[in-house]
User: Fold these one by one.
Assistant:
Number 1:
Amino acid sequence: MGNHYELDLIFRLTIIHLKLEKGFDNMDDQQLQQLVSQLSLDYFKKPFIDKACFNPRLRTTGGRYLPQQRKIEINRKYLLELGMEELIGIIKHELCHYHLHIEGKPFGHRDQEFRTLLKETQSPRHCQQLPSEQRKVVSDHQYKCQQCGQLYKRKRKVNIKKYSCGRCKGKIKLVI
């Protein structure tokens, strides 16, 4: 697929250009379209002739490819919270769906052609979880072993007469 050093240099220059031009935090749909087109040419050696845009309604996914509309939608939060490298990974992933669909090949996540293309283009299978969307573990009940001090956090109450410490088999006691 080409010299990886050259591709990395091209993307670093593209990122620097976008940062200098407008600041990547303020990237608009037109700049996103340019970036997607450039990534398509560099990694897939094929043009991206359809539409790419940000979708503010996406919450927990980095992006999606809509085959009926031949459109790529990207979650802007990933750019703002995790940066340009994560965004490029998401775009490459969606471009794998796009190019396989255009060629009439299976483009689902479980299809072998899709997984092979992901590896060839060094695209991620999944994107990271957004820091703002991470759920905090709520523990209403805390138990502590009376022998070894092991702490257990639970959402539901535990019958302390029925259960014992998993580490030392000692008795557990409700703390909170």
Note: The chain is about 40% helix and 15% strand.
Number 2:
Amino acid sequence: MISKPWIEMWLHPRKTVQAIVEFSPNYGLKILSFIYGLASLFSLAQTFSLGFFMGFVPLIILMLILAPFWGYLVFTFVSWVVYQTGRWLQGLATHLQVRSVLAWSHVPITVNLAVWVVFLFIFRETLFQGFPGSYLFKGPMFYLLFFMCLVQLVMSIWALVLYLNGLAQVQGFSMGKAILNLLLTIGFFALGFAVIVFLLLWGSNLPTQMIFSR
């Protein structure tokens, strides 16, 4: 087992992932689920302006409680789809190994979570109430937001790079095949989303169709 996987993962994802899955595919899963889950929930709360529907402190407490469960659920389900599509390509990894790769590839998201914490201290409840609003037009605040968002973008891209390397390692794939595995997964989710939208639209038209058919 690598002594410092949290550090080694940044620059040596293949070696680190291989050591982790050989030691225990569940190693670090709980804390990584919490880190990803909290960063994800912060993003969702900001996107949907949930601060208009709940007080700042209760919302933070709720997200802290839900974070590990949300992160675990996302890691488990997404990795299961990746595992299934990887089987079409003769991938060698188990579901638990694929989930381990997905979880550990999110080590850079710790930086993104730190950015969210900085945002919380600066903007407080306004962060979840139609943010950024007028802050984009306040000189130095614009440059702060730009820098912080750039950091989050870079960390997200690096997480993707780590994921593809780790996935290729455990699946026994080339990098091109690992990318194909990911694209098939994205296609699966896109198809599922399209089916859901179609069913919702079709269901919403049923009452109108029933009226005109009488």
Note: The first helix runs from residue 5 to 11.
